[in-house]
Every structure is written in structure tokens, then in C-alpha cells.
Amino acid sequence: MERFECHRNWLAVFFAVVLILLTSFLIIPSVRAGEPAQETEAYCLGCHNNPDLSLELPSGETLSLFISPEILGKSIHSPLGIECEACHTQITTYPHPKLDYQSRRELARAYYQACQKCHSDNYTKTLDSMHAQAANAGNLNAPICTDCHGAHDVQKPDKPRANISATCGQCHTAIFVDYKASIHGGALIQEDNPDVPVCTDCHGVHNIQDPRTSQFRVESPELCAGCHANQELMGKYGLSTDVYNLYNLSWHGVDISIYKANWPTIWHESAVCTDCHGVHNILATDNPASTVNPANLLATCQKCHPQAGPNWTGAWTGHNRISLERTPFVFYTDAFYSIFSPVVLWGSIIYVVLQIIHSLVERVKRSLR
Amino acid sequence: MKPTTPPLPPASEQVRTEVHLARFKLGQRWEHAILILSMTVLLLTGLPQKYRTATWSHSILSTPERVELVQQIHHIAALLLIAEVFYHLGHAIYMLARRQLPGDMLPTWQDVRDAWQSFKYLLFLSKKKLPFGKYNFEQKFTYWFIFFTVGIMVVSGFILWFPEVWTRFFPGGIIPAAKLAHSTEAIVAVVFIIIWHFYHVHIERLNLSMFTGWLNAHDTRQYHPLEYQRLTGEPTENSETGESQ
């Protein structure tokens, strides 16, 4: 009797399992039918994992059709379930529709349009960029999404941060060489420093603008101030945050702020940060190769002030507060006027007011007489 | 200088005779006019440059060409002022060489005592009205204040005009110092002239002798008793009390 009971329990479990399995077979295919998109990777890789799979384009270029399952698996999209046909929307069957692109570039410029399906905001920004202008002007090598982000190997762009600048450096090689040697680039590449700017911090990301315009020029000090006027950030490196405020009060800075406010489209030569410190090749002031190192400063001034002699650099007060040690002439002039002006003005005001009071009293006295 | 009395009208009780005494020569009046002209132009073209971050300045310096024009006008007015300075100093040296430079304008210890006495008088601590000569200490202070102001403005202005030349001989620090001095001194001087000079020549009494050359006998007797005595030979009440001091 006991044994029979036991058998009945096992039978119940068996039937329950069979029932669950049958129902699940009924349910799951219907889910699959609704979202066919997310299951194609394995299917496609059935053919495309063949390293020899390729195609000859009319241009004579060979288009490899090999997709490394390993690289694809490590991309940002694949583990999230965003698989082949999310981008390759036109391929739904095998055999595939015929490709009618003349060259690899033509194909790339057509395929990258798929990015805007999900990343429409960033895609729209690129339409306004310097790169899009170059493309519109006929330069088909101007970068598209996949040139910077990759295609099947898309990764987060800033892991590590140095990748961002390295990516730009693929085309802007000379600038990247300068940048790598600069105080910013060196700290980025050698230490993965999170505080130094990479290319996109100054130039923008998707809507990169032409940095050679007068507008960019007059706005550039503000760009540097974004970090160099930040007390917390500069404190870490022992740098002064007065540089921007004092520059703004200086001859150069006032000029630039006026042009920025009134005539941003008129080119103006008054010095901005980069004229003296360099652009991509900025070095620390105490570096003997720095353009603003005391040893090189006069030559830097002479770029705009060719007549300047060796004493000229002493005129520079644009980054330092008035102090006896650094700027004695200004210090004494300032000290003189801080006494002279109030003494003269208050002295004359008090004297004249006393005269007025006295003459009024005299007049009243006379009328009472 | 001889007392100058215009021909007297026929004696009559209805006619009041106003006697004028010579005070400023034609050359001095021209110098003053040139000072007014050049300083006004310098002020009007200098202020927008000093305050060029202000909105009102933007409406004057509305284009880069306008900035350049304003600077050029400022420079031309400065050259006029400098020419005046050369004339003034040259004339003084010429007069000095001929032993004819009147010492009226030179500051003396008496001026310091006068200032103190005046201060007490204004505070009703003393009833003595001071017997001034041709120039009282207020006028001397105006003259010497403007003398040194013009000196500072001319030197600092030239440093700012030709900074590269100056720093060949002097330390670079003079450029920012000149900029500070030029713009501060200008404001101090303008405010001083408005408060001090305008009060004394327009409000206290209307004194146009610097334009006409003449000061009436009444004002001369009241404000410059010693000068009145010197010109007319008549002692005044004030001049006598003054002598005793």
C-alpha cells in the first residue's frame, strides 16, 4: 500500500512536468514569431564565421564577409541582444539580395545610415559637423559613425579614455603626435588621467565645428576656463584659478571679450590662451620647451610684437595679482593711487561742502540783520 | 601791471561805475582755452576706452574702425595738449631768463598756513577772512594739481602709445603701471576739476576773468585784497588785517 502511494506521487510529478513542457512549447514559438530580430546572430554566423568568405566589388576591392564571432561577442551591441539584422535590415533571407555598391567606401557610407535608427540624436548632430561639411563638399573619406566607433566591434568610446584621442589621431596624425607630447596628452596616455582634456572635450563630440573661425577663437578662452577656472580641479595640480579672471581684465582679455560680445565674426589678433601657450602642444610653464617658459617668452611675445625688447616680458600681468615681488611698478602705482585718490577727492569735497555751508550761514545771518 | 580804469562816464547818480582790473593776459587766456579744448576731447575719447566693457561704451565704439578713430582723435588732442605744455614751460623759462617771471603762482609755506586758517574760518573757529594776493591757495592748488596731472598723463600716455620703444630703456613693468596711472589719474583729475574748480569759478561766484581778462574791482577787493592794494594803491580792510598776521 505504501509503495503504491509512492508510485502515485512520482506519476503526478511526471505528468506535471510533461504538462509544463507541452504548454511551454505552445507559448514560446509564439513569442519567437513576434521578435524574430534577436536570434539571427548564430544563424548568420553559420556562414559568416568562415574567414575566407569574401566578395569582389566592381572597384576591384575585396570585401571580406568574415565576422569574427569572438569580436562580435565582445561588442557592446551583441551581448545586449542587438544582433545582425538590427542594422542589416535589408537582409532578411538567404540568398541575400544582390549588393550594388561600387566600392567599400560607398557601401560603408550607405550602411552607416542604420545607426540613426537608434542613435538619432547623435546622428542629427553629425549633420551639422565639420566632417559632414567636408563630405558635402565631396570628400567621401570624411568620417562617418563607423569610422570612429567601429562596426561589428563597437565598444564604449571611452574605455579607456585615451581611445578617444587615439581615434581622432587615426586621421589627424600630426596633431595627435603634438598632443601626445603635450602636458594634457602625456597625462592621458601615460596615466589615464581622468582630468585632462581629450580631443572631444574641446572640439565637441558629434557636432564638431571648425576651430579656425574667429568665433571659435574669441570663445576659446572660455573653453580653457572650463577647467582652468575650476578651483577643485586645479587645486589637485597646484595651478592658479586666477588665470582666467585676470586674463579677462588684461589688455588682451578685454579686447577679446569685446570682440566676442560685439563682433565675433571679425578676426581679431589680440592674444587668446592658445596664442601663447600653444594649442595641441601645450606644455607646463616650467618645461624648458614651453612657449611661455621664461626662456622662450620673449620669442612668443615677438610673434605679435616684433619690436619688443628683452624688458618687454616684464609688462605681462595678465595671470598674476599685483604683488611687490612680481610687479613692483604696478604695486607702487596702485599703492600711491589708493592713498592719493581718496585724499584729493575727499579733501576737496569736504572743503567745498564747508565753503557752501559757511556761505549759506553768512547769507542767513545777513538777512536776519 | 598798471591799474586800468576805463574812461569814466560823466558823473551822474544814476550811472554806476564798474571798475575792472586786469587779471589775465591774452596769452594766458588762450592757454586756458586750449586746455579746455584738449582736455575735453581727451576726456570724451578716453572714457569710452577706459570703460570699454560697459554697454554705453559699445554704442560709441561700435565698430573696430570707430575704436581706431577714437584713438586717433585722442592722440591728436594729446599732441595739442603737449604743444601747450611746451609753450607754457618755454614761456616760463623765457620769462625766468629775463627775470620777469612773476612768482605769484609759486607755492609757499604761507599757502599751507592759509589753508589751515581758511579751514578754521569755514568751521567758524576764526572770524578772520584771509587777505589773499593775486592767487589764493585754492587757485594755486588747482594750478599745481593740473600741472602734475598733465605731467603724469603725458608721460604715461606716451608709454602706452609706444610701449615697445619705452621698454627698450625701462623695465616692462612700467607699461601696466602707466595704464593704471593714466586711467586713474584722469578720473581723479576730472572729478577734482568738477568739484573744486567749477565750484570756485561758477558757483561760489561767477568768475569769467580767465575768458575776459578782467576782474571787477569788487571781486578783486573781496577775494584778492593784497592784489587790489597792489594795483590801486588803496588799502582794503582785509589787507590790513592780513598784514598784521
Explain what this protein looks like in three dimensions.
- The complex is a heterodimer of chains A (369) and B (245).
- With 369 residues, chain A is mostly helical.
- Among the domains of chain A are: 2-34; 37-155, no CATH class; 335-369.
- Helix content of chain A is 55%, strand content 2%.
- Chain A is built from 19 helices and two strands.
- Chain A has helices spanning 2-34, 40-48, 69-74, 84-87, 104-111, 120-126, 130-136, 145-149, 162-169, 173-181, 183-191, 199-203, 214-228, 231-235, 242-249, 251-262, 273-277, 297-302, 328-368, and strands spanning 54-56, 62-64.
- Chain A has a two-stranded antiparallel ribbon.
- In chain A, strand 1 (54-56) and strand 2 form a beta hairpin.
- In chain A, helix 9 (162-169) packs antiparallel against helix 10 and helix 10 crosses helix 11.
- The longest helix of chain A is centred in the C-terminal third of the chain and has 41 residues, at 328-368.
- Chain A is elongated, with a radius of gyration of 36 Å.
- The termini of chain A are far apart.
- Mean pLDDT of chain A is 88; it is low at 29-37.
- In chain B, 25% of the residues are buried.
- Chain B has one domain (22-244): Fumarate Reductase Cytochrome B subunit (Up-down Bundle), CATH 1.20.950.20.
- A two-stranded antiparallel sheet of chain B has the order 1-2.
- Chain B has 245 residues and is mainly α.
- Residues 239-245 of chain B have low confidence and may be disordered.
- Helices cover 67% and strands 2% of the residues of chain B.
- The two termini of chain B are 26 Å apart.
- The longest helix of chain B has 34 residues, at 64-97.
- Chain B has helices spanning 26-50, 55-60, 64-97, 109-122, 137-161, 163-166, 174-203, 209-212, 217-223, 225-232, 237-244, and strands at residues 20-22, 214-216.
- The interface between A and B is large, with 43 and 39 residues.
